[in-house]
Amino acid sequence: QVALVESGGGLVQAGDSLRLACAASGRAFTNCAMGWFRQAPGQEREFVAAISSSGASTEYAESVKGRFTISRDNAQNTAYLQMNSLKPEDTAVYYCALDRTYSGLVYSYPLTYKNPRSYEDWGQGTQVTVSS
After folding, report:
1. How many angstroms separate the first and last alpha carbons of the chain?
2. Residue 1 binned pLDDT confidence (cut-offs 50, 70, 90)
């Protein structure tokens, strides 16, 4: 099991930026794909972004494409989510997650990179609140 700890959330105004970080314990991090998900009150957890173990492949939800950027620093065992041009509808608890099964992004249904069930390890989440 890999422990994940998110940080960087907060209260910002619409149009502002935030950078979330996800610190991982253990050497397994460098060989695993990672994802960011978010969950707003009363809603299901939804996919935000994913990145392969090398960082060469990334995918984004349509709602954040062009505004958010996922990256990782394997030497630091840390993944990041740079969020620009934030909107009130981005308000949610943001979670990072680790896919210990695959190093690349999985496109074969049903356990694709968009599916929370594809990820074995989860952080505790960090709150992002965007005011209008």
Report:
1. 39
2. confident
